[in-house]
Amino acid sequence: MSELRFEDVSVRYGSRRRGLTVVDGVNLVVPSGATVGLVGESGSGKSTLARAAVGLLEPSAGRIVLDGKPVPRPGPVQMVFQDPYSSLDPRMTIGSSIAEALPRGSRDRRAEVLRLLEQVDLPGDRADQYPAQLSGGQRQRVALARALAARPEVIIADEITSALDVSVQGTVLNLVRELQRRMHLSLLFISHDLAVVRYVSDFLAVMYLGRIVEQGPADDVLRDPQHPYTRELLAAAGARGLDGGLEAEPADPHHPPSGCRFHPRCPIGPLVLDDRDLCREVEPDGDGHRHHTACHFAADALVPEIARRNP
Ligand SMILES: Nc1ncnc2c1ncn2[C@@H]1O[C@H](COP(=O)(O)OP(=O)(O)O)[C@@H](O)[C@H]1O
Ligand code: SF4
Ligand SMILES: [Mg+2]
Fold first, then answer.
1. Tens of pLDDT along 146-157?
2. Which candidate in 22, 25, 146, 270 could, as Cys together with 276 as Cys, close a disulfide (CB 3.0–4.6 Å)?
3. What is the DSSP string of 154-206?
4. pLDDT the model gives residue 249
């Protein structure tokens, strides 16, 4: 199986002069056979990173490698999107859509299609139906079957439950988790919703305005979140009430704040504590740790400190 690695990856839209960098120096590893959850609010650059991983966009800097080598296209890295309509042709039967994704020269395509449908818990007679005859959850299963048809080693799942009814999100999540384990897939699971991501992830990466601000083993990050933004997401996910954050200015990649990009919203940053000019001036770094956080003041002592200063 395979390790997908993002090395200092930046992705821009537009020209070199007037472009917009929406993924900025991302280092991220999806270990072989593991699930990495990538979480961050809308606009943080998650889908852009995903599209670069499957070759739909070219990084403007850095590289993306599979087991140390450039990713062959098409093939070992497959993507499943939020909206299965975008990957399923409405005029094609489910069976033909899946068959189309089989590697060239595959034999007994009908049997293979039926096997793939079975893997995603759909009855074989769905093969002759059209996408419109299926529910949203069933279509997303077909999109998964189609991704699996290419015999991938890595799957990028981008908001795959976000368009589904809450009632079916759980079954699709369970299916994804089960397939990942059974087939030892490496999975990059992307969502804006930490409550969803935490459910499937071995590792967690938190993205804010194009940068990874915290990453580590999921248990560590969830039990002991270091970055104030991670704490905000956790609180939003209902897991843990803390901090709350300042009134959120929507993050705008055209005008990234100086220093730490999170500083205008940070509940322990320069707008709250007057000795934190550093946050405005210097972008925090600190890569390479097991549990890595890009914050100058990430430490457990912070919360009592705020209580002391703002009684
Ligand atoms: N094709 C595009 N051209 C220009 N800007 C884009 C394009 N696609 C996305 N963006 C911008 O890039 C930023 C990140 O978008 P995206 O990667 O979709 O974030 P996310 O998936 O985290 O919501 C957003 O500000 C978005 O408006
Ligand atoms: S570096 Fe400063 S502004 Fe940024 S998250 Fe840490 S405390 Fe907040
Ligand atoms: Mg997205």
1. 999 999 999 999
2. 270
3. EEEEESTTTTS-HHHHHHHHHHHHHHHHHTT-EEEEEES-HHHHHHH-SEEEE
4. 61
